[in-house]
Write a structure and sequence with these properties.
Oligomer: heterodimer
Radius of gyration of chain B: 27 Å
Helix content of chain B: over 70%
Strand content of chain A: under 5%
Order of helices and strands of chain B: HEEHHHHHHHHHHH
CATH architecture of the largest domain in chain B: Orthogonal Bundle
Shape of chain B: flat
CATH superfamily of the largest domain in chain B: MetI-like
CATH topology of the largest domain in chain B: MetI-like fold
Distance between the termini of chain A: 45 Å
CATH topology of one domain in chain A: MetI-like fold
Structural class of chain A: mainly alpha
Number of helices of chain B: 12
Shape of chain A: globular
Number of strands of chain A: 0
Strand order of the largest sheet of chain B: 1-2
CATH class of one domain in chain A: Mainly Alpha
CATH architecture of one domain in chain A: Orthogonal Bundle
Helix content of chain A: over 70%
Structural class of chain B: mainly alpha
Largest sheet of chain A: none
Chain lengths: 280, 314
């Protein structure tokens, strides 16, 4: 019995060593990047592996924030993310409500088309999307970025809202109908407050996706650097300053730290959203 | 009397029809925003793609000539297109089994309620997923570079004699991209697997232990068959996502060296938006994108059919 216990203990500690080792390898690139962003250029080349700068400096951040326009990119990213999240939330919530609660003509067709869109790669629609934005005279503007980022099917969010609204008891709706609410009032006063958990998940996931988007902002800001987001800005910066490694590390840190912080505090919602997507 | 009754039911059904119309109208009002955005940025672009693919058009000027299927016949003879096409599928063939295996391993390890710190581990494995792919790609160029920490460590540990140019060498470049994508997306598939594993009832494990099965036997003979259906969905999602790869390739190798890592997305981007090879060719790029989009859909449907046939026999 005792022997078995020690054996189990050894096995558990082996598991922990293994999992922690993998975990450290997993986040090492981010630790390295953050460390590099606080190193001076000479130290960066002297101390390539180390994660603790001997003489931490914020010069890199100041340099790229002011001289390489990362301040602008940061604000652009926030603006594009916030507005596209709002649009996506409103439209998937409303559509999910209709699809989850009612049978209407064309419902199944809509669902099938949305579901089928999972397989369509963005690269197959990017050229005409660019032309659509161009015909609206919005190429290189934040509004163009916001609208095109909000476009598309957002299948996961639709499914999350649809299956949530399917589960809401009928009585609630009938009660509000008796109180004289029309469909919109019922939606606004009864349903919207109920779906807060799903809405939170959708907001977190879309925030992270919009923040990280690359192909759309790259194509739409090709000739207009002033509207670049961080993801595109860093790529352009690397193209122009291949030797400024610490500057690039600082730019990368600015780009990923906000989402990492958001994720650490809200990870439950994100993980549930992803798990819910595969279940439905 | 009979007549009156019939009249009544008719009236009711008329009312129902009006009610039904009302429901439909409201529903479409609720759908309007989603459908509008879908049409504007997905439905209409797909139809446009078809039209563009029949044109010889640079996109810079308005004069486009209708060339019929000439773009497609040119594609069939375009070595660079087939190179990118093959690379996309090579990439898929490498990443799908690796990604499924690694993420299942991590999920199985974490699917143990008694394991302390499992949420911390989960967070660590998940962090690459939520970070910007293009930023990660750029940073990885340094980390894997000849002067970067990985080579530094490998040389210091005497595993290799001289630094390896992982991304600059055509032999390793695609494999390196696969490893980086594996690391980047693993957390997502781990969560998918965890959702599947949580559907396996606890007494199944207990029964297996009582029957004297060790952990490995339990896994291969009992758990794996139970989660195989979920695995099928995960494999399809992974395959489709891997064919869409762009950010990591664009930022890490730009499709190089010598097109060794050129995938369809980078090929289309270069043909449509970049001037490095002369005038952009929107029509030709559209044909390539459509051809590939069609291939992805066919493969998706094929995999789905295989999956449903398999699940019939299991």
């Amino acid at each position: 019995m005792n022997k078995e216990k020690t054996l189990r203990k050894i096995r558990t500690s082996f598991t922990h060593v293994l999992l922690a080792g993998i975990g450290l390898a997993w986040i090492y690139p981010f630790l390295w990047m953050i460390a590099a962003s606080f190193k001076s250029q000479p130290e960066f080349f002297k101390n390539r592996l180390g994660l603790m700068p001997d003489d931490p400096t914020i010069d890199n951040f100041v340099r790229i924030w002011n001289k390489a326009d990362f301040g602008t990119y940061f604000i652009n990213t926030i603006v594009v993310t916030v507005f596209s999240v709002v649009i996506v939330l409103v439209m998937t919530m409303m559509a999910g409500y209709a699809m989850g609660r009612f049978k209407f003509v064309g419902r199944n067709l809509c669902m099938a088309i949305f579901l089928g869109s999972i397989a369509i790669p963005l690269v197959s629609t990017i050229i005409p999307t660019y032309e659509v934005v161009k015909s609206m005279n919005l190429v290189g503007t934040k509004l163009g970025l916001i609208l095109s980022q909000a476009g598309g099917a957002h299948v996961i969010f639709l499914l999350l809202f649809t299956s949530f609204f399917e589960g809401v008891p009928k009585e609630l709706e009938e009660a509000s109908k008796i109180d004289g609410c029309n469909y919109f009032q019922t939606f606004f006063h009864v349903m919207m407050p109920l779906c807060k958990p799903v809405a939170t998940t959708v907001v977190i996931m879309e925030t992270i996706w919009a923040w990280n988007a690359f192909m759309l902002p790259l194509v739409l800001t090709l000739n207009n650097p002033a509207s670049r987001t961080l993801a595109v800005g860093l790529y352009a910066f690397k193209g122009e300053n291949t030797v400024d490694w610490t500057g690039i590390a600082a730019g990368g840190t600015i780009a990923v730290i906000p989402v990492i912080i958001l994720f650490i505090f809200m990870q439950k919602h994100f993980v549930e959203g992803i798990a819910g997507a595969v279940k439905s | 009397m009979k007549r009156e009754k019939r009249w009544k039911t008719q009236k009711v059904s008329k009312k129902q029809v009006i009610e039904q119309l009302k429901v439909n109208a409201w529903c479409w009002l609720f759908m309007a925003l989603a459908v509008g955005f879908y049409i504007l940025f997905q439905g209409y672009p797909i139809i446009c793609s078809i039209q563009y693919s029949l044109l010889d058009w640079s996109g810079m000027t308005s004069n486009a000539t209708f060339v019929g299927l000439a773009n497609y016949t040119e594609l069939l003879r375009d070595e660079l297109f087939w190179n990118a096409f093959a690379n996309s599928f090579k990439y898929m063939g490498m990443i799908v089994p690796l990604e499924l295996a690694v993420s299942l391993f991590l999920a199985y390890m974490l699917n143990n309620e008694k394991l302390r710190g499992r949420s911390l581990y989960r967070t660590m494995y998940f962090i690459p997923v939520i970070t910007t792919a293009s930023v990660v790609g750029i940073i990885m160029v340094f980390i894997l570079g000849v002067q970067g920490p990985v080579n530094h460590a490998l040389v210091a540990l005497n595993i290799i004699d001289s630094p390896v140019n992982f991304l600059g060498n055509a032999k390793y470049a695609l494999l390196t991209l696969v490893v980086i994508s594996l690391w980047k997306d693993c957390g997502t598939y781990m969560i998918y697997w965890l959702a599947g594993l949580q559907g396996v009832p606890k007494d199944v494990y207990e029964a297996a232990t009582i029957d004297g099965a060790d952990r490995r036997q339990t896994f291969f003979h009992i758990v794996l068959p139970l989660i195989a259906p979920t695995g099928g969905i995960i494999a399809i999602l992974c395959a489709i996502n891997s064919l869409k790869v762009f950010d990591i390739v664009k930022t890490m190798t730009e499709g190089g060296p010598y097109y060794a890592t050129d995938v369809i997305a980078t090929y289309v981007y270069r043909t449509a938006f970049s001037s490095e090879i002369g005038m952009p060719r929107l029509g030709y790029a559209s044909a390539a994108a459509l051809f590939f989009g069609g291939a992805v859909i066919v493969i998706g449907l094929g995999l789905n059919a295989i999956k449903s046939r398999l699940s019939k026999y299991v």
